[in-house]
Design goal:
By secondary structure, the chain is α/β, with parallel strands linked by helices. It contains nine helices and twelve strands. It has one domain: 3-Layer(aba) Sandwich (Rossmann fold), CATH 3.40.50.300. It starts with a strand and ends in a 15-residue tail after the last strand.
Length: about 270
C-alpha cells in the first residue's frame, strides 16, 4: 500500500458554513507530516475526517486502503493512534492507575481496564516502555508523573495497538522546554515501528528531523503541501499566519521570527486575504 491517506476534492460543511474547501492531499508510505495553521483553520476537522468521526460533504477519502462509505470505520480506527492535550479530561480516571495499566489500556481503546489482560499484553507494554526509554516509570501511578512524563506515557499507550497512523495533536502544549524536547525525541523511536506520523502544532520549531512533509492550511483551504524544505518559506508561512514572518534553520530545525517595520508595528495589511 503506497498511499496511506488520500483526500480528493474534499469539502465539509457545518450549519451551512464551508469549513474545509476542495482539499486534495496525499500521504504516501514512509512520509511523516506536520500540519500547520491558525486556530479555526480547519486542522481539527481534517483530523476528524482522517479518523472517520466526520464524513466529507463532497469528495472522496481513502485511509489505509479503506474508502469511506465502504469501510468498517470501527476497525479502521483501531489502526489509528491519537494523542492530544484533550485526553487530560480523563485524568480523574487515570490518576490512580499504574503506568503499566495505562499503556495496556491502549489495546482496548479504553481509559481504565475492564477486560482480561494477558501476560503477552503485559510483556508488550513493558517492551514499549523500554523502547521509548520510559521503563523507569514502570510501577508509578499517573498522579505521580510530571506533565511531560504523562504526555510520553500517553504516546506509549497509543502505540499499544500497533497503529499504522499516529496523530499527535499539539502534544507539547503546556510543557517546559526540557519536557518538550524529551517528547520530541520520542519520535525517532515511533517511526521505527512502521507508524506514520501526523503532527499538529502551532510551533514550527517542533518540526524535527523525522518530519519529512508539511501541510499548510488557512481558512479551510490548503495553502501548500509537500517536502518541508519546499513548503516552509517566508512567503507561504506569512500567508498562513496572516502576518509577515521570516524563517531560519538551525540544527536542521525551522524557527520563526515575526517581521516588524521600523516603527515597531507588524505589517498585517501587507498579507493578502
Amino acid at each position: 500500500m503506497d498511499r496511506i491517506i488520500t483526500f480528493k476534492d474534499v469539502s465539509w460543511r457545518r450549519n451551512g458554513q464551508e469549513i474545509l474547501r476542495q482539499i486534495n492531499w496525499e500521504v504516501k508510505k514512509n512520509e511523516h507530516w506536520s500540519i500547520l495553521g491558525l486556530n479555526g483553520s480547519g486542522k481539527t476537522s481534517l483530523l476528524d475526517i482522517v479518523t472517520g468521526y466526520r464524513f466529507p460533504t463532497t469528495g472522496k477519502v481513502t485511509v489505509l486502503g479503506n474508502e469511506f462509505g465502504k469501510a468498517n470505520l470501527p476497525e479502521l480506527r483501531r489502526k489509528i493512534g491519537y494523542v492530544s492535550s484533550s485526553l487530560e479530561r480523563f485524568s480523574h480516571v487515570l490518576d490512580h492507575e499504574t503506568v503499566g495499566n495505562i499503556v495496556v489500556s491502549g489495546k482496548f481503546a479504553s481509559f481504565g481496564l475492564y477486560e482480561e489482560v494477558s501476560d503477552d499484553d503485559r510483556e508488550k507494554a513493558d517492551s514499549l516502555l523500554s523502547a521509548l526509554r520510559l521503563a523507569y516509570l514502570s510501577g508509578k501511578t499517573y498522579h505521580m508523573l510530571s506533565q511531560g512524563e504523562r504526555k510520553r506515557i500517553l504516546v506509549a499507550r497509543a502505540l499499544m495497538s500497533d497503529p499504522e497512523i499516529l496523530i499527535l495533536d499539539e502534544p507539547c502544549t503546556g510543557l517546559d522546554v526540557f519536557a518538550r524536547e524529551e517528547l520530541l525525541n520520542l519520535m525517532n523511536e515511533i517511526v521505527q515501528k512502521n507508524c506514520h506520523l501526523l503532527y499538529v502544532t502551532h510551533h514550527i520549531e517542533e518540526i524535527v528531523d523525522v518530519i519529512s512533509h508539511v501541510l499548510l492550511i488557512r481558512d479551510g483551504k490548503i495553502v501548500a503541501s509537500g517536502p518541508k524544505q519546499e513548503v516552509l518559506t517566508d512567503e507561504l508561512l506569512s500567508e498562513v499566519y496572516k502576518m509577515p514572518v521570516k524563517i531560519r534553520w538551525e540544527e536542521n530545525r525551522p524557527w520563526l521570527t515575526i517581521k516588524k517595520f521600523s516603527n515597531g508595528t507588524i505589517g498585517l495589511h501587507k498579507i493578502s486575504s
